[in-house]
# Entry
Amino acid sequence: MRKDNGKVTIAIPLSEKRLSLHFGHCSEFLIAEVDRTTGDIMARKLVPAPPHQPGMLPSWLHDQGAQVIIAGGMGQRAQQLFQQKGLSVVVGAAASEPELIISDYIKGTLVTGGNICDH
# Structure
């Protein structure tokens, strides 16, 4: 189990600098270390998405330090693989700017709809 020191590391799949609605089709990930109390982004990096291979992203994002994945849509099997790695998964987020998504998540006001991915 990772120590959080009052911080959480959030990964958001991006396409055109906004949350990608389909997790497996993103072009890059924002990996952000966020203060749980203030919501301030303490560190951030944009990382190109690796080539899409089933089952690879959970290990890859875990290795990037992610603790929470926020996505628009993600298949059930992918969600299970992330959870097996100890990562929390939030699905149904809208295609918005990642900073707004992070702020709303930390405040507990992130609005999510249905998971748009059914595989």
About this structure: The radius of gyration is 13 Å.
